[in-house]
Amino acid sequence: MKFLSKIVFVIVAICAGQVSARPTLAYATRDGLEFADRYKNLAAPPGKYFALVCAAKKCKLRLARLSNQAAKVDMYDYDEQQDGYVQRADINRALAFVRGIPGLKEGPVKTWYFQPFRYRDDGQNQPVFTPPRWSRTINVNGTNLHISGHRVEKAIRKCPACEPESGVIWKMAMGTIERTLISLPDDYVQGPEVQFDVNQFLVWVGDIDSDGKPDLLLQSQSRSGGVYLQLFLSTTLQAGKPWKPSAKFSYWPLWDPGC
Predict the structure, then answer these.
(1) Buried-exposed string 164-196: b where 16+ CB fall within 10 A, e elsewhere
(2) Beta partners for 184?
(3) Backbone φ and ψ of 10, nearest 5°
(4) Which of 9, 14, 42, 96 is at 20 to 30 A from 33, Cα to Cα?
(5) pTM of the full predicted structure?
(6) How far apart are CA 28 and CA 42, in angstroms?
(7) Per residue in 59-88, pLDDT tens?
(8) Could you give the CA distance from residue 133 to residue 249 in angstroms, rounded to a whole number?
């Protein structure tokens, strides 16, 4: 009977939107992001989330809700508006929205770093200029976490006469642990003339899965028009294996061809 009771509890929780089968990452604002089913963007499922909100060097989780509303949306490849929908959050200026991670609850969340210019005090959401940097070291419980980016070039196997492909590889190192986080081709960093630095790449370092070890929220593309986030949970980091993101979110404005 106890076993059956647990099954019933889980089913009820899932139906109520309190449990997600796997971690889900989202980004939204009160004004909303526009989506269209025929386009490559896929909105996160609506429902209850926890908003990661940071200010004055402290971060906390707040219970939030994402909702979808049918709307006419502008598309770059159509003269007229198309049927779509707008996804909105009831909380503004959150770094991200998450759910599906065991133990999530409202309240303070251990934070070692978050992007200081992610949201300006004037509310214009524009990055404050800082000199480009390709590395950052953060003290995590007395151990240094080192995040670094490196520009690389490699030959194209099927085209010996072609110019080498170039891009950026981001890595992390902490104690004896070293992992490659993300590899980005140049078109994801707006070409070699633009330095996509660690001030843009690293959004947040904290402990959202409550295991005492750092989790990473990263911005995996530098184009200012879109939102590209990846969440790396320390509970998934295994010896000798690549560290893969537990959840991703990507959005590109429908009205922008991205050329």
Answers:
(1) eeebbebbbebeeeeeebbebebebbeeeeebb
(2) 168
(3) -65, -45
(4) 14
(5) 0.81
(6) 13
(7) 999 999 999 998 888 777 666 788 888 899
(8) 25
